[in-house]
């Protein structure tokens, strides 16, 4: 049967679909040419009349931004229209005939250095323009770049902004809040995953895309140096020139201040062949720290095939609409973003989580209501987990953290610059190598508290916050997290109902590292429970006055 959207757009076929809605190829029945177009349907992740108007306002604002971007940049699809129907929102945009970069690599294998350079050289001015409008794309990846058949030019699709408006939610206190962080694990840098994207986050994603084009490997297939956190990719693209390799390396530096500050700078480095590196402040693990294999959870096996990374929408926060976000200088945008991330720690917020199928966008429920709609068939899991001796004893199911944990609850929460009212950190949360000699000891949480806090965060469904309590080397351990954050969330959000900490004992601690043994009990969503003993390695993150988890086994 023919589907006519808005009494006008005749659907030809579905192009894709995920947690936010579907995307259709359609023709415009009210244009003489029946011009083809892409109709993108967006569903608010919470279908609640209370927030409808807010979503609507944001949607309109963001559509206006897309209109502006698309009208002046040839390599961004033109916005033709936007409308609402029932409780759903639609944008209608130019259909770009071509192949995505993912299609390209699938069809013809890895691209040559000159092809990759050309793509970068053609895209960087587009990014420069987008950034000049104070917009961060937030989801640059091979799937979101189409090589246009007409002229071979790369076109940037799928701006995160509009989807973000769909993330407006009502938290457990009944307050309207927002929002979600848009991005794709592996392609998105850590500051973006923490809710604080900066312009160079897009450069990072673009450089990760270039690595995919040169190596054919998705980020999750690449190893990282467990000490420096650096992504090891050169060995998969040995013939790449030092200039291109240097440009990419600088763009994917862990810390934004080590990257190119602007798209123009990156473009010039590419064209002129000069790559200078600012002084390194790379995250380093102490030499003595063990690397951290731990048992694969018994409930599932990691699929050896690496799926295409999905866009995820995670984390509650305070409306990171495509507002001005200025890099490194305490602008309003950073302030907002910091509040967003701060909100991650404090607030119990509801975000929809729908993992419809592998390779589809995900929205996450950090639901205080425990209403995860995660597809529990997901067969990847990677976190400290019940031991092989998982039993199906008769237990209290779905205990809340308050009801179930035997551990004292009156522990001081973490203090980070983000949840402090006075300190707004303009830099991403970065475990620091700084010795702690001059740090005030007053509010320093104990390692046991850190472990306790980690599980409380998980029990509250704040997976993104919990994820950011892991050291980067641990996050990037692809045996444990083959799909990065998505694997983490698949496990915690999809399988685990609650974790009780039965006992926590400190094995050793010094200024920089600590080892904590924890006896845990996992309550699974399928009703099973099982005990588990985990030995945590912790690193002191002086910059944020907290411990981060660098290993668990
Ligand atoms: N303007 C466009 N022109 C041509 N194809 C498009 C356009 N926008 C999206 N597409 C294609 O439509 C398909 C579905 O798009 P959609 O944005 O829903 O992506 P997705 O991969 O399903 O989800 P996501 O990017 O959110 O993870 C993709 O293959 C994408 O390349």
TrEMBL record:
> What ranges does the record list as Low complexity composition bias?
384-404
Lineage, uppermost ranks: Bacteria, Bacillati, Cyanobacteriota, Cyanophyceae, Nostocales
> For binding ATP, which residues are annotated in this chain's numbering?
40
Q: Which UniProt keywords apply?
A: ATP-binding, Kinase, Nucleotide-binding, Serine/threonine-protein kinase, Transferase
Cross-referenced Pfam families:
Pkinase (PF00069)
EC number(s) for this protein?
2.7.11.1
This protein's source sits in the domain of life called Bacteria
* Record's compositionally biased regions (Polar residues): 360-383, 417-441
Tell me which InterPro entries the record gives: Kinase-like_dom_sf, NTF2-like_dom_sf, Prot_kinase_dom, Protein_kinase_ATP_BS, Ser/Thr_kinase_AS
Q: Which intervals of the chain are annotated as region Disordered?
A: 360-448
Q: Which organism is it from?
A: Anabaena subtropica FACHB-260
The name of this protein is non-specific serine/threonine protein kinase
GO molecular-function terms, A-Z? kinase activity
PANTHER family from the UniProt entry: SERINE/THREONINE PROTEIN KINASE, SERINE_THREONINE KINASE LIKE DOMAIN CONTAINING 1
Instruction: Please give the catalytic activity noted in the UniProt record.
Output: L-threonyl-[protein] + ATP = O-phospho-L-threonyl-[protein] + ADP + H(+); L-seryl-[protein] + ATP = O-phospho-L-seryl-[protein] + ADP + H(+)
